[in-house]
Design goal:
The chain is mainly α and 48 residues long. Helix content is 62%, strand content 0%. It has one domain. The longest helix has 17 residues.
């Protein structure tokens, strides 16, 4: 479920583009994957 926050049309479009490019089944799954990847990046910034 998407959090109750304002997400710009540009960012939402990028997640939709990711969903299509990565052949993800649902938009919710795409948001989950993007959020998890972002959390990993901020939790381990030196491992990029």
């Amino acid at each position: 479920m998407r959090p109750n926050i304002d997400i710009s049309h540009t960012l939402a479009g990028r997640v939709k583009d990711y969903k299509e490019a990565a052949d993800v089944d649902s938009l919710s799954e795409a948001y989950r994957e993007v959020i998890e990847a972002g959390l990993e990046a901020v939790e381990r910034p030196d491992e990029s």
